[in-house]
# Entry
Amino acid sequence: MLHVHDHGDDDHHHHHHHHDDADGPQAGGAVRLAVRFLLAGVILVAAGLAASSVMVAAGQAVAIVQFGDPVRVLTTPGLAWKIPAPVQQEVAVDLRLRTTATGLQDVGTSDGLRILVQAYVAWSVPGEPERVRQYLRAARNDPDEAARQLRSFVGAALQVTASSFELADLVNTDATRVRLGAFEERLKAQIAQPVLDTYGIAVHQVGIARLTLPDATLAATVGRMRSERETVAAERTAEGLRAAAQIRSDAMRDARIIGAQARSEAATIEAESRRESAAIYARAYAADPQLYMMLRSLDTLASVINDRTRLVLRTDAAPFNMLVQGPPVTGFGLGTADPPK
# Structure
């Protein structure tokens, strides 16, 4: 009996150890399962947060689109949130400055001539939510489509703007007459507001990239420039001739004035010299009349006779009697002499 009892105890002990071995694997599996669920939850939460986050970069706007409709526009750089897709999706809109240019376009000026003009436009999408929505609806966030529409607007505006200017306002050798700046301003005024109202696009600058002339217009322009140059040359020649005539007239007037002054001064000097000469003669005559007469006779001979003079005259007549008789003797220390017989 004891032996049988011992066997029963061994069976009971063996059964107890078997139950403990069964509980151990079940507990470990539950823990692992819980960890897996926890990791999956964390991953789902992280994925949800990632799907709900929106990063707005500098120079762009982000439109939150819900079932095709932009319900919200984010323009401030930084992190923002939205409902995960597919309920809401994000669309990035570039707000940076862009440029586009037309091809050469044949337009007519107000004086009936043709020119070939190429214009450029600098534009961007304003950082205003309503303009961003307008741009998304009109251009479908396609910059190429927006640029194509801009070129169409500029092409139509070029026709209207060019008809308000003459060719000489755009092509001229005189830089002061060129009104290219006014042309560009008027062209911008033609397109800026319609483009903003239609596409939500802001036009910052419109300019002329290239301007050339067809053959017929070029010939007319060259002829006009030649005529202008000839007119300017004729005006300058006439001005030079007028200046030269004025200079000659002034010189002749000055010469007449100087000549008159010189003659007046010469006459004054001559009169003064005559007066002084007469005074000298008077003093000489008063001092010695005979000597005076002799000197006057010699002066007369010197003035009427030269190397080739041949005269046949009486020698006893004045002033030639001096050649025969000699000077009279006066009281100047020369003594006295009887006149010749």
